[in-house]
Specification:
The chain is α+β, with helices and mostly antiparallel strands and 219 residues long. Helix content is 37%, strand content 20%. α1 crosses α3 and α3 runs antiparallel to α4. It is globular, with a radius of gyration of 16 Å.
Length: 219
């Protein structure tokens, strides 16, 4: 990425662009094929489901973009419990149709691993396919890390198995993987708050799962 490129907070008017960017990045992945096996419907379903969460993050989290609009992070401020998106189940059924059950199953499997104490949930890191391998993901994670260090909270995320290395370089530790039925594996990861470097400060398998839904993987 050009050294002069900047990262900025997304605005409400960016929400459709962000949803399309994430769907474009996710579309070629094994997870996208598992979520929406129908190749003709895949991109539209992914875009519309992601749009629900992008909108929600503008109320209960934050979204950052590179200034060339090719890469983004979407996160949620889980400093306290937050509600699901308004009318989520109805909206998911409307946009995902027969594929909604796959999103529901992913919701449940991720919820078993997400911590319950205050943390930052990095839900999406996405780089448009034609802009990958140019340092944009690294720049966004470095920006993300600097913000985490200022608030001194742990962070949690999940990535497609095999994509851990970039996150490890930014302080994340892999946890036991989640294997989807007849599908790919996901790798939950955590980054401890600066005040806790022992790896013991953030439980990964809580007794009372939080409502993380299906977001939490990166492409």
């Amino acid at each position: 990425m050009n050294a002069a490129a900047r990262i900025r907070a997304a605005r409400w008017t960016d929400k459709d662009l962000v949803a399309a960017l994430i769907a474009d990045a996710l579309h070629p992945s094994s997870l996208a094929a598992w979520l929406v096996p129908d190749t003709k419907q895949r991109r539209q379903v992914l875009t519309e489901v992601v749009a629900i969460w992008v909108e929600h993050a503008l109320f209960f989290g934050d979204i950052h973009l590179t200034d060339d609009l090719t890469a983004t992070t979407v996160g949620f401020h889980r400093y306290r419990p937050i509600p699901p998106p308004a009318n989520y189940r109805t909206r998911l059924t409307e946009v995902a149709g027969p594929h909604a059950d796959r999103f529901d199953l992913l919701d449940a499997l991720l919820a078993e691993k997400q911590p319950t104490e205050p943390h930052y949930h990095l839900a999406f890191l996405a780089v448009r396919p034609d802009a990958q391998k140019a340092g944009r993901g690294t720049a966004l994670l470095a920006h993300h890390r600097s913000r985490l260090d200022r608030i001194d909270l742990p962070s949690w995320t999940a990535v497609l198995a095999g994509g851990e290395h970039l996150f490890v370089r930014h302080g994340y530790t892999p946890r036991p993987a989640i294997t989807l039925p007849d599908g790919p594996a996901l790798q939950p990861m955590r980054r401890n708050a600066r005040r806790s470097s022992s790896g013991e400060g953030i439980p990964i398998n809580p007794a009372h799962p939080v409502d993380n839904r299906w977001q939490g993987f990166h492409v």
